[in-house]
Design a protein that fits this description.
Bound molecules: uridine-diphosphate-N-acetylglucosamine, calcium ion
Number of strands: 39
Distance between the termini: 98 Å
Structural class: alpha/beta
Shape: elongated
Largest sheet: 16 strands, parallel
Mean pLDDT: 96
Number of helices: 9
Radius of gyration: 31 Å
């Protein structure tokens, strides 16, 4: 939006989280709280600054593309905004001030809020909500004609004011010069000995400047986080929102209550998600795919019509179209499966590529392997990729057939269309179109049992 800058307050200490980590770095919906807030902020403005103090180094390391403002001592929200005065010097537009821990606020709400501020020609506007349990929040005090009068902190409120259910969300729009002018006048004569940003509202009123209060209809949006319980509540709301938006876009989610899908995940239409599925990070799933119960998929790409059966774990991997994996397959660290691959029960694949139409249906470990098209990997095949010191590659060319229970001792290459006999320990390359048998020959000793009994 034109003439709008955003200032995020994130310097406060998060005592009640009982954490080594800055509050805004805790995650909900698979992203840190501050990332959620900044994503919305970026849609509204290209000038974003963040006030940091407690655990400032952690926050600075985790966030980019913003201006950091150091608040050395945390003397209150008014003091925090004042720390940013330099950054706003000479700027005459509006500033949207928000805490770093209100990740559920919607962009559309903030847009409507800024419009409200501008249409009403207010010097300051505050976003409010009616909530059932307003304990701890600042209360919105309105005058007889319903205009905003002041904001009174819970701790400083009279019994009469404590009855007010309309609360301050901590999100404001100010005319920047008026804000910094008023901030020089606030005092810390309150129970917490802090400089309250909220006092600006009362000060502006005394100087005959108009302040407005914009009430949101869904109080969920202004939920802030002070405790782990509130973090869980916010996470639940995010998950529900994510499932709803996916369903709106044509994804079938059989039981949204049990499904965990991060905000950053994309899923194509007509894909079906069974109960108790977890899909995290930047995962992208194509159309008409099916993800069965108890699978966990993280930062993966999954093609169209692909079926992930029960209990699979897929991490940092790319799967093509019409693939079937599982039940109980484990794909990790840069595995790629081309179209129409089939991976079955108890197959673990690491840093390997399987070409189109290749099958590994039962009990295998494939690590550091490059496997061509239409290869058959028998049950129990293992690439012995680690010699105790180094990892070595295995190459299996198109059309090869690796018999059951074979060990491929890397580095090794199985040539095109070659066969490896079941139970082989392959230590040397197998030329194309040949058969390798590498196992002890069977000896049958007839009459052996009777002979032993006689002894
Ligand atoms: C504040 C509001 C209260 C409102 C509530 C909404 C004031 C005085 N009160 O109270 O009316 O209902 O938010 O959640 O503003 N911060 C700093 N530096 C500081 C102090 C705080 O950056 O010195 C940051 C915090 O990291 C946080 C935000 O400001 O992101 C709000 O601070 P907090 O202490 O949580 O204020 P509340 O007591 O919740
Ligand atoms: Ca708070």
């Amino acid at each position: 939006m034109e003439n709008l800058r955003v200032l995020v307050l994130a310097a406060g200490k998060s005592t009640r989280m009982k954490s080594k980590y800055a509050k805004v770095l805790h995650q909900a919906g698979g992203r840190t709280l501050i990332e959620h807030v900044l994503e919305i902020a970026r849609h509204l403005s290209c000038d974003i600054s963040v006030v940091v103090g407690h655990s400032a180094d952690q926050v600075k390391a985790a966030v980019s593309g913003v201006t950091f403002i150091d608040q050395k001592e945390q003397l209150g929200t008014g003091h925090a905004v004042l720390a940013a005065r330099e950054h706003f010097s000479g700027y005459r537009g509006d500033v949207l001030v928000m805490p770093g821990d209100v990740p559920l606020i919607l962009e559309s709400t903030l847009e409507a809020f800024v419009q409200f501020h501008r249409v009403g020609a207010f010097t300051a506007s505050v976003l409010t909500a009616d909530i059932d349990d307003p304990r701890g929040y600042g209360r919105i005090v309105r005058r007889n004609n319903n205009e905003l009068d002041s904001i009174v902190e819970h701790r400083d409120a009279s019994a009469e004011i404590l009855k007010i259910r309309e609360i301050n969300s901590g999100i404001y729009v100010f005319n920047a010069p008026a804000l910094f002018e008023s901030l020089t006048k606030i005092k810390n004569d309150n129970t917490q000995r802090e400089y309250y940003l909220t006092d600006v509202i009362g000060i502006l009123g005394k100087h005959k400047q108009k302040a407005g209060a914009f009430k949101v209809s869904s109080p969920d949006e202004v939920l802030g986080i002070n405790t782990r319980q509130e973090l869980a509540t916010v996470d639940r709301v995010m998950r529900r929102r994510k499932c709803e938006s996916l369903m709106t876009d044509g994804v079938t989610i059989i039981d949204p209550e049990t499904v965990y899908i991060d905000s950053g995940v994309q899923i194509g239409a007509d894909t079906v998600i069974y109960p108790s599925v977890q899909i995290y990070g930047q995962t992208v799933i194509g159309e008409e795919a099916t993800i069965h119960s108890f699978s966990r998929i993280s930062n993966a790409k999954i093609g169209v019509r692909t079926i992930v059966l029960e209990g699979c774990i897929v991490v940092d991997s790319a799967i093509g179209d019409d693939v079937s994996i599982g039940p109980y397959a484990h794909l990790r660290m840069g595995t790629t499966l081309d179209n129409s691959v089939k991976v079955g029960n108890f197959v673990e694949i690491k840093k390997s590529a399987l070409g189109a139409g290749t099958k590994s249906m039962h009990l295998a470990y494939l690590g550091d392997a490059t496997i061509g098209k239409k290869v058959n990997i028998g049950a129990g095949v293992i690439t012995c990729n680690y010699d105790g010191v180094n990892k070595h590659p295995t190459t299996i060319e198109d059309g090869a057939f690796v018999g059951t229970d074979s060990q491929l001792i890397a580095p090794v290459r199985i040539g095109k269309d070659a066969y490896v006999a079941a139970g082989s320990s392959i230590t040397e390359d197998v030329p194309p179109e040949s058969l390798a048998i590498a196992r002890g020959r069977q000896v049958n000793k007839e009459g052996w049992v009777k002979a032993r009994k006689k002894k």
